[in-house]
Amino acid sequence: METANTLSPGAGNACGKDVADVCYQYVFEAIPFIMIIVGADFKVKALNSPAKSFFGSGPGQKSMNLWDLAPFLLDSKTPIENAMSEGRTQILRRIEYKRGEDKYMDISVCPYSGKDAGRGAVIVIDDVTELEKKEQYIRRSQKMDIVGTLAAGLSHDFNNVINGIKATVDSIKYSLGNMKLTPDALRKQVKDDLEIVEESANRGSDIVEQLLSISRRKELALADVDLAQALKNVLKICGNTLPKTVEIVCEVRDEKAMVKASLTQLEQVLLNLCINASHAMTIMKKEEDEKGGKLSISLEKIYVGPSMCESIPDAKEGYYWLVSVSDTGVGMTKEIMARIFDPFFTTRR
Q1: pTM over the 0.70 mark
Q2: Right CATH for 220-349 from 3.40.50.2300, 3.40.50.1970, 3.40.190.10, 3.30.565.10
């Protein structure tokens, strides 16, 4: 009597292994992401269907080197090799790939090792181009929203600069027409006034540069940035634009806090946090509530240990700079907090 579709312990490990291999193959082919299995020498062992569609199918692909198959990964070769050598999953986000139009990929490197399979890694590639385009659009919209928010406050400060220059020019004219002044006294008076004009002009130039850096559409390359100085720049803007009912308390050390970042994006993020905090203490409050509160900003160096690394993706043990922004505003409910990363979501009335 034949038994169909059953496996008994006596059937042997080979039959069970064959079924498992088939199941793994089905899963491998069914996953909608590009998946590449490579050996320890980075030779391609297998490609799933999305990978074959993306790279094109060919008889020599399985013997190709990963870097020849996917040249856009060459810029990330070091972290990929480190992930393999350390046996630790590595996620690389927003890897740019030019293929007709700019594309963006999230790359996951998942090392494996086993008695039968040897050592290698599964490379998972997720095309996040559409998501990146939406996020770029949101970032540009946020920049223009910030520029509009700052315009009123900065225009007041800019008017002060212009009025200061006008008053000093009038003083120079008066000095030049004052026949009682000796040549030495006249030179000193005019020199002092010109220094005031120069200082005012520099201040006006700083204001314009702050606006341009926020509204600039082109993203700047990552560079060494002093986080402490970025905070001071943002605080200068906040001091000129936020309502006087908002008290700003800042704890920033005089020492430099160097990080690798885009200064424009970093200042935009910090400014967003401060403006949102201000709104939480003013326009978001009920009409009968007193407007205003305390905006607290701090910068401190912290040590991230093994336990924290386990809960934070891609974190490595070591020292980090921690920026904290808090306010005494209305706060968020659990329902609102669950949606804070939704595009275009806002609680502003």
Answers
A1: no
A2: 3.30.565.10
